UniProtKB/TrEMBL annotation:
Transmembrane segments: none
Domain of life: Eukaryota
InterPro entries: EF-hand-dom_pair, EF_Hand_1_Ca_BS, EF_hand_dom, F-box-like_dom_sf, F-box_dom
Record's keyword terms, sorted: Calcium
Phylogenetic placement of the source organism: Eukaryota, Fungi, Fungi incertae sedis, Zoopagomycota, Kickxellomycotina
Residue span, F-box domain: 1-47
GO MF terms, alphabetically ordered: calcium ion binding
Residue span(s) of domain EF-hand: 258-293
Protein name as it appears in the record: EF-hand domain-containing protein
Organism for this UniProt entry: Coemansia aciculifera
Length: 359
């Protein structure tokens, strides 16, 4: 016990995060020094994330997918305080912060300050969250279940339009899942729906991040398994395996440098009249080269309408067709659906399907 009392606060916090809250409370009764160490506000705020899910991580992963819920969450009155900034407490500058050790506690954890506070508000935040997750009343449990089920159904309804939904819809849906996670931090369905939102936005790496957490909670949850299989297949093809270079950029929304370079070369080859636009005849040639047969005019018209339209050619005149951006959009869409098909097309244009170098 004496050795434990001599630990700097930063080291004690690391150990204490693995202890049950009840064990920490008991430890506080054994000595004045351990009472102080175990009552550190920063420790209990960190323990909220450790025991009930890291909400900061959820916000950051969603932001990587282009879904910003930070303001909705930080200003929410429906969520218990859970961030150090929400405590509104003054920093304790007592020399005892590091147990009288001359070493800098921040050298142990670079992201953690060596100045701590001991107001008890951290424990209050933890207790409030604990009571939400484990309510004392059976009626509260029933009400929480009904409310969460209704919220989850509402989120699914909001996502019915798939990728066509607006950014505000995705943000509101993601925020409502945070409300569910407030009471059910180990809800695999929440992580599945966050992953689904990212998937709809073609943000595959954020989607995988949520899927990995969800599967660690409940590896038997079928929707998680199915979505993970689909995302992993796309990621493997789009970002490459073995000696394959990626087809997409890190965000998954644009071409990698390798694909962009290859498409620029292909566009120049197809643009036989050098006017900066692939017209109907040139697009027909592209389809014939990749598919082996010329498409009917109606198909070409549909292709033009889907990714191009009236495009300004060199000299200022307007032409029905594709510019380079249209060609790029087409191959991004195809890659997101079937990366192997894109690599096959590139091979037919003379590029190595793995390295995307011109053969």
């Amino acid at each position: 016990m004496a050795l434990l009392e001599q630990l700097p606060q930063a080291i004690f916090n690391i150990i204490a995060l693995d202890l049950e809250a009840g064990d920490l409370a008991t430890l506080m009764l054994t000595s004045h020094r351990l009472n102080r160490l175990a009552s550190c506000d920063e420790l209990w705020i960190e323990k909220i994330s450790a025991d009930f899910g890291d909400r900061e991580h959820i916000i950051d992963v969603l932001a990587d997918a282009g879904v910003d819920i930070a303001e909705l969450v930080y200003q929410s009155t429906d969520l218990a305080p859970w961030r150090r900034q929400q405590l509104d407490i003054e920093t304790d500058t007592d020399d005892d912060d590091c147990n009288g050790d001359s070493s800098d506690c921040s050298s142990v954890i670079p992201t953690m300050s060596n100045r701590y506070s001991y107001t008890g508000l951290g424990m209050c935040c933890y207790r409030d969250r604990f009571i939400r997750v484990f309510p004392r009343s059976g009626d509260d449990t029933v009400n929480n279940i009904k409310s969460s089920e209704a919220t989850l159904e509402g989120v699914k309804h909001m996502l019915r339009d798939g990728p066509r939904a607006s950014s505000d819809v995705f943000a509101e849906a993601a925020y409502r899942l945070v409300l569910v996670q407030e009471y059910y931090p180990n809800s695999a369905e929440c992580y599945y729906l966050w992953a689904l939102i990212c998937f709809m936005l073609n943000a595959f790496k954020p989607s995988l991040s949520f899927l990995n957490i969800g599967q660690s909670i409940n590896g038997d949850f079928a929707p998680l398994k199915e979505l993970a299989k689909e995302v992993q297949s796309i990621v493997a093809g789009a970002y490459g395996t073995g000696n394959q270079v990626p087809l997409l950029d890190s965000a998954g929304s644009g071409p990698s440098a390798y694909l962009a370079k290859a498409l620029a070369i292909i566009f120049q080859r197809l643009d036989s009249d050098r006017d900066g636009v692939l017209n109907a005849a040139e697009l027909s040639h592209m389809v014939r080269q990749t598919n082996g047969q010329a498409p009917p005019p109606a198909v070409i018209s549909q292709i033009i309408g889907s990714f191009g339209g009236q495009v300004q050619a060199k000299g200022g005149r307007m032409v029905q067709g594709w510019n380079l951006a249209s060609l790029t959009d087409f191959y991004i869409a195809q890659t997101l659906d079937d990366p192997s098909e894109t690599r096959k097309d590139l091979a037919k244009f003379g590029f190595d399907p793995a390295t995307l170098k011109h053969a």
